[in-house]
Every structure is written in C-alpha cells, then in structure tokens.
Write the structure tokens for this entry.
Amino acid sequence: MPENTAGSQAPATQVELKDKAPLQAPTGTPHPKPKARSWAQVMERKSDIPEGLWLRCEECEKMLYRRNLEANLHVCPECGHHHRISATERIRQLADEASFVEMFTNLRPTDPLKFKDLKAYPERITAEQKKSGQRDAIKAGTMFIKGRQAMVCCLDLTFMMGSMGSVVGEVITRAIEHATANDLPVIIISCSGGARMQESGLSLMQMAKTSAALARFDDAGGLFISVLTDPTTGGVTASFAMLGDLILAEPNALVGFAGPRVIQQTIRQELPEGFQRSEFLQKAGMVDRVVPRSQLRNELARLIDFAGK
C-alpha cells in the first residue's frame, strides 16, 4: 500500500512551525523604553568631565596626560619635544624653593605713539594683561640656582608672544646694571617673536640699550649666560640673546632673525635641513651647547662655579 504522504508530512510541518514561532515576552509589566536624551542633557553630562586633562603633543601628535607632562617639565615623554612654557613656570623650574625675588615691578607699558591697528594699543595691552596675568612680557629678579645667586630675566611668550617693547628693554637694562653693581652673574632666558611693532622705533632702541648695558657689564668682568628657547627671533636675536659669554639652547629651538621663507626668497637658495634650529647653530658655532630642560638647572649651576662666580 502506498504511504499516506499528507499524513506523514503534517507532524513535520507542525514541528517546523513550532521551532520558528517567535519568542513571547514574559508575562507581567513590560520594561519601559528609555527616553531620548535632549542635547542639553548630553552637554550637561559632558560638562562634568574636567577640561584640559589631556592634550596633544605638537610634534608626535600623541595624547598626553597633562599632569604627567607637567611632572616631566613640559617635555613630551614620547618624543622629547620641549613644549613652550611661561616665564612663571620657567622660574619655578630653575629657582631654589622660595628664593626668587621679583624686581622692577613698577614699570608699565605706555602708548606714546598712539598706535592703532585692528584695535588701539592700550586695549591690546589690557587684554594681554588679563589673559596672561603679567604686566608685560618679562619677569626679572634675583634667585638661587642650587645655592648660586644670580640675576635672572625671563621673557614670557604668553604676553604678546614675548615681544620686546620699552618695558622689556628697560627691565633687562636695569637688571644688568643691578648685577654689575652687586657682582652677580646674569642669566637671560629668551623666548620672543622679536621687536614689538606697536612701539615702532622705540622698540628697536631697546636693542642698542640692552647691548650697551651688557658691554659695561663685560668691562666689569661679569658673567652673562644666554639661554635660547623656542622661539628666539627678530630683534631679540639681533641684540642681547646672542651676546652671551656662554650661549645655551634647548633642543630643536627655533633661533633666527628673519623667517626661513624670507631668507630663502632673499638669497634665492635652498636652505639646509634643520636651518635655524639649535642643533644646526651649534654645529655652525653660534651656540655653545644644546641642553635638555631636565639638565638646564644643573648646567647653569656648573657654569657659574666654573666661571668663579
């Protein structure tokens, strides 16, 4: 007898349908759907995370934890890039604890030329003072470096890119004269975009004034150590920054008078690789030694001892 085809396939069909039946939700109250968050709620949650904890290295572009970078003197632990720092931070790194005594704090920039570009010069000065917390682009005073007293001037990039105006030139001149009278070594840490254009010829006069003060200091037998950091350019390079008895520089610091593009267009020649960097200038004899930031404090103390100061 032939088999009953329809009867034999019916159970299989039932099993197949049973296997493919959709899963049923468990009995009881179903879970409520999550409500969509508004953009304001998303931003409020993000605001709970402190800003500035992480930053990207300018050289290797790796993300760095800010506290680790600060503990490493603002030098990238991955590639060794020396990040730019303020005058306050520089003094904190170099001075013995609580030994820095700031001087010449009564000097303020003025606007004798009534200069105005996109905004008036006094307005720009006020904005820079609020942003940086400094009166001008320099801090100067006496300090001890590993027990050695010195007169230290440090330009500040956070104030108008460390540009040299009348206040900067006057502070450096008075610091040199104080060191001459008290037989102290002079250390100037340069980091500047050059002369301050808002003061025009008055800014350029500071080149001659500071150089003349250093000449008198040299005649008196003083020791001048110049430290070049990134960047040291323009009128600062063309005056006191390159007049040191000893010239130190941080690694890969940009040092020069005019920019590479201007020089290349002027001489119409290809510039060598690494032109205007501290390592290149050391090979050319313009820099005595390239010193990493971690060794700068020890190196300054050693040089003061070597010179008998």
Observations:
- Residues 1-21 have pLDDT under 50 and may be disordered.
